[in-house]
Amino acid sequence: MNIEQYHLGNYSGSSKHSSFAMVPIDEAQREMLSTVHRNSFFQIILLRQGQGRYFVGLEQFSISAPAIFFIFPRQISSLELSEDAQGDLLMFDESIFCSAILANELKEYNIGLHQRVNFLSYEGREPLFEDILRSKQQIDALEQPLNNIREIERKFFCKIIILKIIDSAPPHDFQGVEDADLGAYISFRKLVDEQFSSERHVESYCQSLGVSAKKLNLLCKKFAQSSPLKLIHDRLSTEIKKMLIFEEMPMKEIAYSLGFESQSALNKYILSKFDCNPSQLKEKLREEASMISSRK
């Protein structure tokens, strides 16, 4: 399955204001969204009308308006919308949505954020959706003539939209959690995302974080109902599946990219985690993705 690589310029059509772009959903945008693709930027889709199917990562949803989709850089996604779909696309880079904010001031909201905001249905929560649209309308009012001050104002209202979306996402029940515990867990998950292909020993993560193995295990049980090793392996397994079905990389290249000593070692890992060989796993993944690759 081929994956299109989209950049902000595909939408903005200009490098002058390349950190932000907003366009309405039209036929051309529906076609771009329906292609299995990966963005180099953040994307928010505000769907006011319509229905369809949504695919992000390895998850699939049937969707109907009102709904919001928050897609992060490098996430693989596809959104197939009905012809009557109406809404807007907001695209922006990290100069607007800084990950440091979530790592510090809003760290309690950062756990599982991708999964919690990738798709949000506002059916039965229309006032929340309308509140977010009002901030979008503020951006509309600043479109022309566009100067440096109005550009800063547009980014300001985009940040408000982001915060409103995060605030309306399903919450975590972490009241009373010690700040240091939450920070250590978030740091662990960040390290796993950065190092899972080169480091799969829990002890190494403990040394980097300055915590004991017992402490890290307690944190992972508290926040993820899992063990540190399983979280590392889950991240690795997800990447293997993505490479098999989306990248269509040879097994030897996958083994090298993910830090396995040999293709044989990768094969053994797949057998232990998926109870099948690589060819069988790839066929299974293709079947699961058939409703995405087979367009009506």
Question: Concise description?
Answer:
The chain is an alpha+beta fold and 296 residues long.
Structural class: alpha+beta
Mean pLDDT across all amino acids: 85
Q: Which percent bin holds the helix content?
A: 40-55%
- Spatial shape: globular
The CATH homologous superfamily of the largest domain: Regulatory protein AraC
Give the count of structural domains. 2
Radius of gyration, whole Å:
21 Å
Q: Care to count the β-strands?
A: 10
CATH class term of the largest domain: Mainly Beta
The largest β sheet comes out as: 5 strands, mixed
Give start-end ranges of low-pLDDT stretches: 291-296
CATH topology of the largest domain: Jelly Rolls
Number of helical elements: 14
Elements, N to C (H/E): EHEHEEEEEEEHHEHHHHHHHHHH
**Beta-strand fraction estimate:** 15-25%
**Strand order within the widest sheet?**
1-3-8-5-6
Oligomer: single chain
How far apart the termini lie comes to 17 Å
Please identify, by name, the CATH architecture of the largest domain.
Sandwich
Describe it for me?
With 296 residues, the protein is an alpha+beta fold. Helices cover 50% and strands 18% of the residues. It is built from 14 helices and 10 strands. α11 (251-257) crosses α12. The longest helix has 21 residues, at 148-168.
